[in-house]
Amino acid sequence: EQGFVATGPFARDEVGVYRNISTKGLSTTFPFTSNSLSQDDGILYGINTHNNSLIIFDRFRTENANMVVFAKSGGGKSFAVKLEILRSLMLGTDVIVLDPENEYKTLVDTVGGTYVNINLNSNERINPFDLPRALKDTETKSGDLLRGAVINLLGLMNLMLGKCTPSESSILEKAIITTYSLKGITMTDDDISGKEVPIMKDLYSVLETMDGAKGICERLEKYVTGIFSGVFSEPTNINLTDGLVVFSVRDLDDILRPIAMYMLLGYVWNVTRSSLRKRVLVVDEAWNIMQHEDSAKFLFGLVKRARKYGLGVTTITQDVEDFMGSPEGKAIVTNSSIQLLLKQSPASIDVLQNVFKLTEQEKYILLNSAVGQGLFFAGTEHVGIQVLASYFEEQVITTNPNATK
Length: 405
Ligand SMILES: Nc1ncnc2c1ncn2[C@@H]1O[C@H](COP(=O)(O)OP(=O)(O)OP(=O)(O)O)[C@@H](O)[C@H]1O
Ligand SMILES: [Mg+2]
Prior knowledge:
Layout (H helix, E strand, L loop, with lengths): L1 H6 L15 H5 L15 E6 L5 E4 L9 E4 L6 H14 L3 E6 L5 H7 L2 E4 L26 H18 L4 H17 L17 H9 L5 H11 L4 H4 L11 E5 L7 H19 L4 E5 L3 H4 L2 H13 L5 E7 L2 H6 L1 H8 L3 E5 L3 H11 L3 H9 L4 E6 L2 E6 L4 H7 L8
Parallel strand pairs: 3-8, 3-9, 4-6, 4-7, 5-6, 7-8
Antiparallel strand pairs: 1-2, 1-11, 9-10, 10-11
The structure holds adenosine-5'-triphosphate and magnesium ion (MG).
């Protein structure tokens, strides 16, 4: 009888027999039943609302380490991603954030890390002409790096100068190649060791000598010597440190923000290719980038090729319709193994249902979920998720003005 009572849910042990148990044996008594999306290692994304098990997942073990996060404003996107950042940092993953809203400052202050505020008056500079240092043992042929850089710069010019005509583009292309070659960087020898990388001013000087480039010069001038010159016209003077690095672009005006985000993507891409590490790049409010074809293409290129370099890209957006409306947006979704959908507005639910093949029940969940609740897709697995932070974590990541004192 004492034995029977001891096994009942009364917390009464009348037998008093103790013995040691191995942790493996002990773990089988853990009261979470299902192991779907519970991996042995990885980080905790939340609670599986279908069966109360834990969603533990290592994004680097999937086909690609990319993730998309969709929800309406205030749905808990940044919160969920910050939680992931905190937990990833503990496992030694480096995290880089493009932050258009100054939302990640507290996080940097708490965990230590680098916060780079890109604005017209700051001293931090990134030079869009930078080239990556070629990694040994990769199949990069000579000229590949430079060719890539020229294409990226042409994209950047489209953003800076407004869409260029085909003839302007070809002038620019020649000018960019000449600018590099004046510094000894050519298609046959694009190793930058010991060489100086050109800056915007060098390109401007080359353009001044070219026929038909007058219009380009006029439009470029404000970035070289004019009002916007602070941001784009000097050699890079920052270093990507380990751990967490956040680039804030909130203080730039609406015209410059997408340009700076493009430039930052280019910078991150260069660093990624120069040293292999496990990294996550978070692009918050990604509609800033998706609204321009050139930067949308660039982001997609990065998402597609990231895996090879150990990079996982997290794309966050509230503008589901716009995002899905662009071919690059759709392609980013298909190239992301993990998809986190939180509370949605009725306006965007049909688009989502279409793209993610949601069942009626899933649709219902997304429309009616509370902040931090939604669906978590990894590959073919679909589960309901509740994103849950500990008290300490919540203090660090909340954007609710009442929650932080
Ligand atoms: N899982 C959660 N648990 C508790 N609070 C949460 C959770 N998710 C979000 N919140 C709170 O809800 C508010 C909005 O969250 P968050 O800033 O992440 O939204 P968002 O989707 O990024 O919105 P926006 O599109 O406006 O940037 C914040 O105050 C945040 O602290
Ligand atoms: Mg946010």
